[in-house]
Fold these 2 entries.
Entry 1:
Amino acid sequence: MSGLPTTLASELGDGDVDPKWLIDGLWSDAAVGVLGGEPKCCKSFLALDAAVSVASGKPCLRSFAVHRTGSVLVFPAEDSHAVVRRRLDGIATAAGSALGDLPIHVITAPKLMLDSRRDRRRLDETVASIKPALLVLDPFIRLHAIDENVAAEVAPLLGHLRELQRRHDVAVMLVHHSRKDARGARPGQALRGSSDLHGWGDSNLYLRRTRSCMRLSIEHRAAPGRDGIALELAELDAGPVLRVLDETVAETPTARPDPQQRILDALTDSPLDVSAHDLRARCRMRAETFWRALRALVDDGRVTRTADDRYRLGA
């Protein structure tokens, strides 16, 4: 019997650690996660807005840029096809697109049960055929006959969706309800059922209704989140759509500069020559990334190495 493979921490791969986005700041690329909230707080509107954005390349909620476009696959388990069509029409119009031009596919089966081996296989085959960038399942409660409070029953369903995401490189947005008695709880802890639902998500969105508007909270496994973004359901000529009330949302940068630019910025901010140790600490980079970028800058003459092994901007 052989042991498990290991490696030194310093020799681990040094891939890109900055987040990659499907929708900038809102949903990570090929992420699984939950869009949660109380009943009647426009979760389905937000899910469909994300679907239109990914399919059209237009910003989600007219505020969050799309980084990866592609087909979208939606299973609306509660709303009629006519309602879904009308909502998508209105959202597409608000985005400046025509619904007929968008590759949004709707699963029309009367039901889809993730605890059914047959339905899991059919979903896998459908995703393999359409190759969507985003899969929306709305809502979780209509996708199974298990006890949501029992982790041992929830985990296999979430595990299947994770396998689906990895096998087909697809983002999975699972719409789910919050508990009715969860007013004072943190958003992720307010979800109905097992805590596995909160822990499963790479990107999670939470909606709650206040007296004046809806509030959107965003959390990510590998990137900073946002809290308290104000939304309202606006009635436009084409139909109701969600609208961001906080005009600063679109101005919030989410992408970090590349490693070389981060080094240049750190040296620009320093009036003195900087040691490699201090420079790397300011840039907050892995050793391999830092040294590769620094060597390239020195070779290009954009950074100068002094006789006492300190660094400054090139002359």
Entry 2:
Amino acid sequence: MKTHHRWFSPRIEREISVTRWGSFGMPVLVFPTAGGDAEEIERMRLVEALEPLINGGRIKVYSCDSVAGRAMVNEEGSPRYRSWILNGFHEFVRHEMVPAIRTDCASDSIEIIVTGSSIGAFNALAVQCRYPDVFTNAICMSGTYDINRFMGGQWDDDVYNSSPLHFLPGLEGPSLDLLCTRHVTLASGEGAWEDIGQSWRVADALGAKGVPNRVDGWGTDYEHNWPTWRTMLPHYLEQLV
């Protein structure tokens, strides 16, 4: 079962689409790649790869437009604008999309698995670390985690609040305590266009704060593309649901 919704978000001052596949099971939020929309994962056959879990009632899959990712890679507006929309996008996920998922699941407290690849992995990591009250596990595939090159050297509160490599060193208190009960998987191939070094850098930042995580290297046969992610994601979700 597939549903599609679209609404105006005041946090990012534009309309955004949200799509769901499945009727029952653990909710899984999949962020698109940088230029993707809410249905990218269907066109690229990732939903097809997840069909045994979807049809078995083990997961419901949600995705949304990659608003902030598009702004970053297309150098939309000023660096200040791009940092504002990145922070606003994460707030949209927490305060608009999460309530919509919970309503759809008929539960005001259900927790969510979050995942994505490339820039989608960055967003998955960011919302897991920012909102551990909602997200239980992050499956980050072939991640691009250093966003400095997309921001033109911009440094402000929006960049700090949105980027785990920036805010993790200073994270303390109840939010860190809760995050330390969660888990982050950092999966990466080592073939063409992959950079597993970015995953190790994130692992170091998480480990320094006591956050459970692991880096999984899939070797040189796995490149930075959809066949890799169609293999990775069912593998990890099978272990969680």
